[in-house]
Design brief:
There is one protein chain. The longest helix has 30 residues, at 2-31. By secondary structure, the chain is of the alpha+beta class. The strands form three sheets. It has a four-stranded antiparallel sheet with strand order 1-2-12-11. A four-stranded antiparallel sheet has the order 3-4-6-5, with no helix packed on it. It has a four-stranded antiparallel sheet with strand order 7-8-9-10, with no helix packed on it. It folds into two domains: 1-31; 36-161, 3-layer Sandwich (Rieske Iron-sulfur Protein). It has helices at residues 2-31, 154-161; strands at 36-39, 42-46, 55-60, 63-69, 81-83, 86-92, 103-105, 110-112, 119-121, 126-128, 140-143, 146-149. Bound molecules: FE2/S2 (inorganic) cluster. FE2/S2 (inorganic) cluster (FES) binds next to loops.
Length: 166
């Protein structure tokens, strides 16, 4: 009898563990809307499904990475990453003041940092408050519609040489 109860307990425990996993998977999917692959310090993100003015947050080496497909009304900037005819902001999602994670406000097309009120425009440039510099651009490479984080591609090197990346 007791072994039957143990079995039932185990079966129920297993069932709720599965439910928990399913919930975690659902959460992960909503945080991670663009398909991505992580391997050996690199993260590859497929940008082909990105939508204009919708912020995607990827994770690379423990840091949040902001990926924003710019809409036509957003001014061109030398920090723009070109993928075909589309323009993207690719930046480490940590405020350059004291490292909080700013939120994106799509109706105003700005990033707002709740810690001390800092703001950045859609190109990641500081426009208000204490942040001393733009959001940092991580090493990246563009391969067709794939963004590879962690590798210094020609686009990144060009930005570095032009002094766009500090
Ligand atoms: S950490 Fe963002 S404004 Fe201070």
């Amino acid at each position: 009898m007791s072994s039957r109860r143990d079995f039932m307990g185990m079966a129920l425990g297993g069932f709720s563990a599965l439910g928990g996993l399913a919930a975690l998977y659902a959460m992960k999917r909503s945080w991670d809307p663009l398909p991505s692959v992580k391997a050996a310090g690199f993260t590859t993100v497929d940008l082909s499904g990105a939508q204009e003015n919708v912020l995607n947050v990827e994770k690379w080496r423990g840091k949040p990475i902001f990926i924003l497909k710019k809409s036509a009304d957003m001014p061109a900037d030398e920090r723009d990453v070109l993928v075909g005819s589309d323009r993207f902001l690719i930046a480490i999602g940590l405020c350059t003041h004291l490292g909080c994670i700013p939120a994106y406000l799509p109706d105003q097309e700005i990033f707002h940092c709740a810690c001390h009120g800092g703001q950045f425009d859609a190109s990641g440039r500081e426009i208000f408050g204490p942040p001393p510099s733009p959001l940092v651009i991580p090493p990246f490479k563009i391969d067709g519609t794939q963004l590879v984080l962690g590798e210094e591609g020609p686009e990144y090197i060009k930005m570095k040489e032009a002094g766009v990346i500090a």
